[in-house]
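Section: Multi-chain targets

For targets with more than one molecule, the full set of components is provided together so that the structure can be written out for the assembly as a whole rather than chain by chain. Components appear in the order listed by the source. The example entry contains two components.
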Amino acid sequence: DTGVSQDPRHKITKRGQNVTFRCDPISEHNRLYWYRQTLGQGPEFLTYFQNEAQLEKSRLLSDRFSAERPKGSFSTLEIQRTEQGDSAMYLCASSLPLAAQETQYFGPGTRLLVL
Amino acid sequence: AQSVTQPDIHITVSEGASLELRCNYSYGATPYLFWYVQSPGQGLQLLLKYFSGDTLVQGIKGFEAEFKRSQSSFNLRKPSVHWSDAAEYFCAVGPPGDSNYQLIWGAGTKLIIKP
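Its structure, encoded as tokens over all components, is:
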């Protein structure tokens, strides 16, 4: 068990560019979550998948944000036409729901800076 | 409105001293309650959680938390802190059941340890 991994760990981009982040969950976990965290705040939920199905996406911040999990394993989060306000830490978490005992395991995050 | 309040943005304690981090919530029903810790460069890690039953919950790394329904609180405690406990601590609440994506997070408390 290598935990949840995210790549890259840091990304600097210019306003207007597209960026894509990858998350590899713990191998047997069928749920995968994406969050955004800004300085001094807790995580803000964006979207989640169960296997390859995206079950909740209404809280993606705008239509510039999209996520995929095509084979039910790794996931990508893409931000198109980045804006300075997108600068934040993007967190991924995975879980294996077992009745009410679901625990999310978080990756280290990808820190995005938009110049 | 549903909310989680962590009244202390920063707390400084001496190594070996006791610790209490406060968490108050506003929620329509008795929620599930969580404490997470975030160390620099690392992912959020679950310290403990309360679903039901005994209101004093034991977690990892020597932490415990007590759910007080009458005060809508779920304060985190540790009898003797170690320098390695320096981190940011987040309280989160969510609806009973299988709905991790609906967690409401506090803004976090940064713990600073004095040698």
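Chain A has no helices and eleven strands.
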